[in-house]
Automatic annotation (TrEMBL):
Recorded GO MF terms: 5S rRNA binding; structural constituent of ribosome
Record's subunit section: Part of the 50S ribosomal subunit; part of the 5S rRNA/L5/L18/L25 subcomplex. Contacts the 5S and 23S rRNAs.
InterPro entries, sorted: Ribosomal_L18, Ribosomal_uL18_bac-type, Ribosomal_uL18_bac/plant/anim
Lineage, broadest ranks: Bacteria, Katanobacteria
Keyword RNA-binding: yes
Similarity-based family: Belongs to the universal ribosomal protein uL18 family.
BP GO annotations: translation
Keywords: Ribonucleoprotein, Ribosomal protein, RNA-binding, rRNA-binding
Name of the molecule in the record: Large ribosomal subunit protein uL18
Protein role: This is one of the proteins that bind and probably mediate the attachment of the 5S RNA into the large ribosomal subunit, where it forms part of the central protuberance.
Length: 119
């Protein structure tokens, strides 16, 4: 008898479980975080219409220059908050995408709070 191959990692299972409870709207979009080995990305998503309202993917490489990953994550959060303020977004739902609330993810959330977002 052959073994069953698990096709989803534990992080992917956590994402599926969390997605049932976190829903972003136009008034309170979802702040989604993606963490790669080198950079960290964030975007504000309206799940009702399926649109990305604000993102910081283009500026991420410039922000990460000559900084540690944790410092850069905080700057990414601040930059996202500034862009969200220009679109009159104050309240967001924080979606950590299955990552632990620690290190770079926590730093990004702190930077967004310092920038003026309510998580």
């Amino acid at each position: 008898m052959s073994k069953v191959i698990l096709r989803k990692t534990t992080r992917e299972r956590r994402i599926v479980k969390i997605n049932g409870t976190l829903i972003g709207t136009a008034e309170r979009p979802r702040l989604s975080v993606f963490r790669s080995n080198k950079y960290i990305y964030a975007q504000l998503i309206d799940d009702k219409s399926g649109k990305v309202l604000v993102d910081v993917s283009a500026e991420v490489k410039k922000i990460h220059e000559k900084k540690t990953k944790v410092e850069a994550a905080k700057e990414v959060g601040k930059h996202l908050a500034e862009k969200a303020k220009s679109k009159k977004i104050k309240d967001v739902v924080f979606d950590r995408r299955g990552y632990r609330y620690h290190g770079r993810v926590k730093s990004l959330a702190d930077g967004a709070r310092e920038g003026g977002l309510n998580l």
